[in-house]
Structures are given as C-alpha cells and as structure tokens.
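hiii, so i know i said id send this last week but things got crazy w the move. better late than never?? heres the sequnce for the chain we talked about at the cafe, plus the structure i predicted for it. fair warning i was half asleep when i ran it
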Amino acid sequence: MSAYVEIIFDNSDERFPTGRDELILRRTIGLKKDEYSLDRKNATKADVMNLLESAGFSRSNPYYIVPQGRVTTLTNMKDAERLNLLKEVAGTQVYEARRTESLKIMTETNNKRAKIDELLDYIKERLGELEEEKEELRSYQEKDRERRCLEYTIYHREQVEIANALDSIDEQRQTGVDETDDSREMFVQREKEIVETDAEIVKIKQQIEFLKVDKKQLEDERRDNAKARAKVELDVKSLTDGQSHAQQTRTRYEKELKEVQGAIRQREAELGVLLPDYNSIKERELAVKAQLEDAESLRQRLYAKQGRNAQFKSRKERDDWLKKEVAEVNVALAKRKAIRMDLSEEVVHLQKEIQGTEGEVSELRGRFDGRGDTMQSLSEEVQAAKEERDRLVDERK
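okay and structure toks below
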C-alpha cells in the first residue's frame, strides 16, 4: 500500500530556478518507503527543502503566521539580525552553505593534490635510484659472467694439460721399463703440482667469497648513503617550504597591518565627525528647551491675564480651575523630567560609544605596536632556517 500527495506550482515568474513554467512536487509514502520527486524525478528531502527556501518558503515560519510581538521584535532588531532574516527569507543561506561546503572541498582537494605531488616527487627520486642500482647490477652480472668464463677457461686448460701429461706418461710406460722410475718421479711431481693447483683454486674461491661479502657490505653502505641523501634532500625541501610559508605569513601580517592602520584612521575620522555633531546637537537641544520653557510660561501668563476677570463666576470655580492648572503643570513638569532623563541616558550612551571607539582605537594601536615584535621574531626564524639549510647543503656536498 502506498499514497502520495502532489502539488503543482505556477512557475511563470521563474521563482523556482528550474527553467520551466510549472513545478510538480510529489511525496509518496508507503509501508517501507518515503520518497520525494521533483518534475517526476526522484529527489532527496534536503534538495526539496533547499528548493523551497530558494523560492522564499522559510523553514522557521512555514505557515506565514505572525506571532504576537513579532513586529515589535522586527522593528527592534539590529542590522546584522535583520540582514540574517532577509537572507533567510530570500533563500540565500542555501547558496552560502553550498559555497562554504564547496570552499571546504576545494581546500581538501588542494591539500590532497599537494600530498600527491610530494609523493610523485619521492617516487621519481626513488625510480632514479632504482635505475642506478639496475645499471650497477647489470655491470656486476657482466663482470661475474666474465669471471666465470675465465675460471672455466683456466679449468679447461689445466684439464687439457693434465690429460696430455697422462697420455705422455702412458706412452713412456709403454716404451719401456727403463723409464719407469723417471716416469714415477715425474708422476709424483705432477700429483704434487695438482695438489698445489687444487689448493690455489680453493684459495682463489675463498678470496672470491670474501670479495662477495665485501661487495655486499659496500652495497649496504651505498643504500644507507642513498637513504641519508634522500632524507637530507627532504629536510632541505621542508626548510625551503617553511621559508616560503614564513614569507607568506610575513606578507599576510603586513597586509593585516595595513588593514589595521586603515581601520584606526577610519575610527579616528568617525570619532572626529561624531564629536562636533554631538556637541552641536546638545547645544541646540538646550537652546530649544529654554525657548520652549519661556514660550510656555509667557503663554500661561497671557491666558491668565486675558480670562481671569470674566472667566469665573465664583471663588470655588476659580479654585477648581487653579487646581486643574496646577495638576496640568505638574504633568507637564513630569513629562519634561522624563524627556530630560531620556536625553541624559542618550548622552550617556553616546559617551559610552565614544569610549568604546577610543578603546577600539587603543586596541588597534596596541596590535599595531605588537606586530613589530612578531615580524622581528618571524624574520629571526627565517634567518635561522636559511642558516640551517645552508649547513645541510654544505654537509650534503
């Protein structure tokens, strides 16, 4: 079992960024599914909410009902809060969120790309070392092949000589018994020579084994030297990268220093503009208050003189009128006191703003003064890194 709800929006004003005159939104609910579709195509709930927000349907107020006190809250909002509300109503927060995610993905991609480049450089260096080892192994195999050929040639020559000697001994033995003693002595001598030759061959084999061991040790030492060289080169590269990073940091600090100086100048200019306006407004207010009080007292006196004789029929009526006038004067006096208190609070608020601006200027000046020490320390670190790099280069050479 399943059921669906479908809404067709008129998109002739292109409120939805789909490029069509109508937008069909459907939600299908079943026992094991809850799916959304836009223009007959499957979509996720997040995509649907983002599309509705881009068209102005706010998630925080989906029914467009204005609660009690909301208008007062909107009128008392700060500029930043009102800007966030406008962004929420216009649906720009979706694009800002996507932009933030895209920037984050781009940063991660750049980091991965840098790591891959470093790995490729290391692989290229390793391939060069393997090529050198391959050439050395090929030359070793050729030399070893020549050595074995020479050994086989020596063995064959000795075998031929021994065979010839045996043949001559057999001929001498067959020629007669008289030459037997001489042949026996010659045979013994030849056997001694054979034993000596065998001993020399064993000795040469031992020397060959010793040479193989020495060669293996030299190969190990060469590999260790290659690893140490690669490590030194990596250290040099890291120091070079650190130097470039320090240079970038110094450039960034110089840029921030210029921005701080500009902000200080801007705050000082604003402070210079606000103080004359504040003083002039305060003087104008005092003058207007004095004029208002003088005019009000003059008006009251004129009214009193004009209707005092023919206004009242009895003393009681006059007393009642006087009490009423006293009450009105008290109310007017209370209003003036309230206005005076409001103006005093406004003056205090302006003074606090001026003090806050002066504090920000002092803080910016302190940051500006502290940047010199930071840049000095960075310069010292860069100089130390350069000296360490030069030392490592000299050690490698």
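btw The longest helix spans residues 180-307. thought thatd interest u
miss u guys!!
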